[in-house]
C-alpha cells in the first residue's frame, strides 16, 4: 500500500508561519521506520503493509501533538494488494507513456 500523509501543527512555531521543526520530527520517525518513503513540499509518501504504515503515521502524528495543542492530519491511501515498489514503478509507468 502507498499512503500520502501530511501532519502539521495548526499553530506556527515562528513569526513567519513556519511549522518545519514539528514536521521534521514527524519525518524523522518515517525515516527511522525503515519503510520506503518520499518527501515533497506538501506530503510524505510511505510504502508498506497496513499496520506498519499506519503505525508510522500514528507515531509521526504523536510527535507533532507533543508540541502543539491542535494538529492537522491528511491521509490518502492506494490499497493494491500484491504490488510493491510502487513509489517508483507508478512514476515509471507514466514517464514511459510520456516518452521520458
UniProtKB/TrEMBL annotation:
Pfam families registered for this protein in UniProt: Thiamine_BP
Domain Thiamine-binding protein: 3-94
Highest taxon, organism lineage: Bacteria
InterPro entries cross-referenced by the UniProt entry: MTH1187/YkoF-like, Thiamine_BP, UPF0045_domain
Family the entry assigns: Belongs to the UPF0045 family.
Annotated PANTHER family: UPF0045 PROTEIN ECM15
UniProt name for this protein: MTH1187 family thiamine-binding protein
Species per Swiss-Prot/TrEMBL record: Nesterenkonia flava
